[in-house]
Amino acid sequence: MTTRAPSRTPRRRRHTALLVTIGIVVALVAVAVGGEFYARDRVGSCVATAMGQEVDGDVDVSLGATPLLLTPITGTVSSISVNSDSINLAGPGEASMRGLQLRSTIHDISLPEGDGTGTVGSSEASVSWANDDMLASLQTLPFGMLISGVTTDPATGTIDVAVAGGLGSMSLTPRIEGGVVTMQASDITAFGIGLPTGGAQQIIDLLTRNLAEYPLQMQPTSVDVTDQGLQVKLQGGPAPLTTADGPKVDCSII
C-alpha cells in the first residue's frame, strides 16, 4: 500500500497571504509617512507665510509631535514654534528696529484654508535685541549718524548711548506703559553739559513706536536689560493668525 505525502498547497497559500498582508501594511505605512512629510512641509511653509505678514524677516517653523494628518479630525494643530535670528519692525517712513531675535510658541492653531482665515488659541514669545543691532537701529533715527555706541547696564536697568565718539551721551530706560514697550530718555549731555530731554525723547519715540503692535496681538509682560542687550517677554490669547489686509493663505492639507 502506497502512502501519499501531505499536500503543501495550504501552507503555500498561507505564506502568500502573509506576504500580501505585509506588503499592504508596508505600503500603507509608506503612504502615511509620505503624507505626514507633505503635510508638515505644506503647513510649515504656510504658517511661515502667514507670520511673514506680521514681521519682516525669515522665520523658521517647527511643528509639534502630534501627526498633522489628524488635523482634519481634531480641527486644530496643538502647537507650533516660530523662531527667527533676525526680524525687523518698522512703520512707513519711520525708523527701523533691526535684528530682533524671536523665540515663540503658538498653541491650538486653526489653520487658514480656502477663505484665508485662521486663529490661534494662545501664544508666548521672547524677543532679544542685541547691543550691536540696537546701535544699528538707533542710527536709522534722525541725526542717528551721530550715535557711535550702545552699552547696557543690568544693575541700573539702563541703555547707555554714546554720541559723537563719546563727546555726548544719553541714557534710555525701557519700561512697559499702556501695554507697549517704551524708552525714557534721561541724562543727556554734550561736551559735559546737561541738555533738555524733550527733543531727544521725541526722536526715541519714533523708534519705539514700532513696538505699539505685536504679532498675534501679544502683549509685553516684562522687559529686562541684560549684558547683551534688551529682552522682552510677550504673551497673547485668542487671535487671528492672518491679517485682514494681507494676502490670503491656504494651509489645507486635503
From TrEMBL:
One Pfam family per UniProt: LmeA
InterPro entries listed in its UniProt record: DUF2993 (IPR021373)
Listed name of the protein: DUF2993 domain-containing protein
Species annotation: Tomitella fengzijianii
Lineage: Bacteria, Bacillati, Actinomycetota, Actinomycetes, Mycobacteriales
